[in-house]
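User: hey, got a sec? need 3-hydroxy-3-methylglutaryl coenzyme A reductase folded
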Amino acid sequence: MPIGFVALPVGIAGPLVLDGRTYYVPMATTEGCLVASTNRGCKAIGESGGAQSVVLRDGMTRAPAVRFGTAARAAELKFFLEDPANFDTLAIVFNRSSRFGRLQGIKCSLAGRNLYMRFSCSTGDAMGMNMVSKGVQNVLDYLQTDFSDMDVISISGNFCSDKKPAAVNWIEGRGKSVVCEAIIKEEVVKKVLKTSVSALVELNMIKNLAGSAVAGALGGFNAHASNIVSAVFIATGQDPAQNVESSHCITMMEAVNDGKDLHISVTMPSIEVGTVGGGTQLASQSACLDLLGVKGASLESPGSNARLLATIVAGSVLAGELSLMSALAAGQLVRSHMKYNRSSRDMTKAAAS
Ligand code: ADP
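Assistant: Yep! Here you go:
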């Protein structure tokens, strides 16, 4: 029963110089300071020659839960699924679901007589949840012939793991796993970020690494990756609930070039994005994807638009980390929030006028 839309302010941060190209990154957020801060991070990256990224892995996962009469029988299916000799047959069955879904592997885990099978597949430019679920259903139907005593409990058994914090995504990855890095010059740290390389390195160690360890963090070794991830997700029509695992990020900062410059990196193992399907088709969201040059399906190389979007998310997180950490190091955080978040301007009216 759709009744309308909820309007959100959208700003752009940029230019973000990433892998030799420039992007203006749309961010939908009610936190005014966030866009300004990410923009400052982009400036520091740009003035230092840009950031570089690598997609380490690309595969969406779904893990059904099935039950047998005994644990021994559940183990039999585990060995069958993990036997390389059976992969080709399973892939043919799985891949029938879509032109784009291609089985990459199956990882199994037991809890007594319950078996959890984590299927991973490439999904072209789609985020891929529908695609992987259809492929998994094909395999479950196929398995029922030889394992007729298999009781399918649920197509999702939480070992996937979708929209919940889970070590499996942090360690194995889900969606796109991306690393993004930049070397920020000493003078840029001083001039644009108003702090020093040594202050940033120390703060990163005490806050993002030791502080998160003290908190028992799971994938949360960063300052505010989820701020940027959610804002870009909402602007570009991604599923905002997947912000949970998409924001897993470890931020590293080290002094390089004889201690003068700053090497910063963000490693994000489970960025779940797509440029087709879901909310990406809506007019405003599609316009935001277009702004980034990643709208819709890539005809030449299916999947390259979605992978590029994932690198832009990581590049924007890098900018956000750089700026917030600098504000904290310089003790500016509260002041800037008072300035940018206490605006009396009504953004919905500003957008309409
Ligand atoms: P999701 O799996 O992310 O939930 P949907 O199933 O809603 O996505 O959307 C994917 C649909 O888009 C599929 O029907 C697929 O065949 C189609 N499609 C067209 N081009 C592409 C592409 N380049 N990559 C992935 N899917 C594509």
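Quick note: The first strand starts at residue 10 and ends at 18. Let me know if you need anything else on 3-hydroxy-3-methylglutaryl coenzyme A reductase.
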